[in-house]
Structure prediction request, 252 residues.
Amino acid sequence: MRALQRIAAVLCLLVVSACATAPPRNPLADWHASPNHEPRRARMIVIHHTAMRSAEGALLVLQTRNSGGRVSAHYLIGEDGRRYQLVAEQERAWHAGSSRWAGMDDINSISIGIELDNDGNEPFSDAQIESLLVLLADLTDRLGIQPHLVVGHGDVAPTKKDDPSVHFPWQRVAQAGYGLWPRELRAPVPAGFDAWAALRLVGYDLRDPEAALAAFHRHFRGREDREWLEGDAELLYDLQLQLMELPSASGT
Ligand SMILES: [Zn+2]
Prediction:
């Protein structure tokens, strides 16, 4: 009898330790495991500049903490083009903060964050941009991210952030196939065109319209005006047409 009790106790312990290592499951439902799954994948890429003087300094901040709280990114690219990875791609890095794009909140949960070593006031080096393009090719191909969904931190958090700065070469990056850029020859803007609706369609959060305009201008016009500029309607109409021409996302 005592032997049976001991066996029961050992079995209990085994069950408890097995439970301790099992993934959390909702007790409200019966668990019927399916092998048909994979880690969640990112759906967009957010570019940042570090606003620091060196990649070494940025690495330290991204691995520890700073005065504003803990931050991280999946990748950091040095001025010399060297790439560092800090967080696995299927994990949620803390780079975008409070953010919204195309109606989606919590951009951290659906994005890969790439920090560029840059103090915010200087041009981005050729080596760094070339290195970024290699990484963008790899990420969009391997993770199935739609290439036009490469945006800046300032785009997804227009009231709080302004990185990457006006020095970031969005046109060059778009010519390589990543992010949107207006075409040379644009169709005439039809009567009744709604520029605000187009700005929202591109992805901008319009809760603070002036901040959204500044972010749009930083990205597409290399300046940060907070009111409409001549030529904006033509540019936005072309971006809207490009978005409407895109194949829809697919994948199981
Ligand atoms: Zn940022």
Q: What stands out?
A: Confidence is low (pLDDT under 50) at residues 10-20. The radius of gyration is 23 Å. The pocket of zinc ion is lined by residues 48, 153, 161, 163 (CB under 6 Å). The beta strands are 44-49, 75-77, 83-85, 100-101, 104-105, 111-116, 150-152.
